[in-house]
Amino acid sequence: MDESGTLELSGGTTHFVFLGLSIPADSWKSKDAEISAIKRRYQLRDEEIHTPWIARRYQEQDVISNFRDLTYDRRRLVVKTEREARLTHRAAVHGLPKTKTLRKNFAKTAAYIHLTLTERHKLLSELADAISKWEDCFIFAEATDKTAFRGVPPATPPFEEGFTQVVSRFHRRLDSAGELGLLVQDSNPTISRRLTELMRRFYVD
Description:
By secondary structure, the protein is mostly helical. Helices cover 49% and strands 9% of the residues. The protein has eight helices and three strands. It has a three-stranded antiparallel sheet with strand order 1-2-3, with helices on one face. Helix 1 runs antiparallel to helix 6 (117-132). The two termini are 23 Å apart. The relative contact order is 0.17.
């Protein structure tokens, strides 16, 4: 399970999405191996796949001559150099605090700077194609349009509502199939206590 979007009603994104991917226990290893093989081809073996950060254009690559012809290691080096130059220039012109957002964006995309935009799109396409063939898997999701609240906090916050809906649907799926299942949440220390409290609502002795 994982979430996308900001929780604040007025911040960052218009939507908050909570999603769960159901994978049979007897096939998850082969599926994990399939995804890992794709990632290794792009030298992303131990990296998480964050689609929004992968799919965007990196301006630094556009100003580097013959970027596509460089090796992966060389690409990393020249992009890092270009980014440091941009940070230095922005700090000199606007002050160090103005580099905070740019530095954050660079950190979010650091794992992918050795890939061209075309290669990154190809990576995402290969991953999507692989997952689309998993006929024994199911996706459960809840999308909340935060603009519908018009700035007034709802009785049930988007996170709690999304989590409840996804877990309930997963439970109904297991119940109808007469099976047991295990929930695994994406690692997020900032909301671990919140998740524990939510899960206690679903616990049956």
